Amino acid sequence: MQKLDLARELQGNAYPGRGIVIGKSADGTKAVTAYFIMGRSENSRNRVFVEDGEGIRTQAYDPAKLKDPSLIIYAPVRVLGNKTIVTNGDQTDTIYEGMDKQLTFEQCLRCREFEPDGPNFTPRISGIMHIEGGGYNYAMSILKSADGNPESCRRYTFAYERPLAGEGHFIHTYMHDGNPLPSFEGEPKRVEIDGDIDEFTQMVWTNLNEENKVSLFVRFIDIVTGEYETRIVNKNS
Q: Is 170 in contact with 191 (CB distance < 8 Å)?
């Protein structure tokens, strides 16, 4: 698979929806993740990321304008020991609780499907990062309808052992804007990871569609010590 320029991937898609990037820094010392949300409706755009313990959660920017919290208020990032969970919905909690009971990443998601937001049936995308003893691996998952037909759920898990420095994988909910929104297809895109945390954060945020972008979370985790740095950018601030 060709390594893609993440900036160009973001520039070329006005509405990828929600997206997860996981990989390793160019110097090989940091585990890297980014999670962004976008919105077309007032309800979706009325959000910010806020820190919540070692993770984050979404919160209404203007509580008076919050209409339906069911699919937009959740914890995208939670940390369980040496594992960092990143998802686009409340399946973060499903994975956290399941892995706390020694289930695998894939087993945790067996009880979940795509979101019940027809006609889009938004895929549930998830990632898990595992750092231990100077080693690092990650996995990504997508649960999606059968090309827009909710009668069938397609489950895909992709595991990346000993990831290479300077590259990662990018998965997002929608192929592009549309009505209904077409679900992501194929395996996560192989993308370049470059720069320090501030440079990487700036690159992602700058290249997301100005009208539709809402919030961005970025974390760099030291693979040896487990210490991390986090950046949060909110359009509503």
A: yes
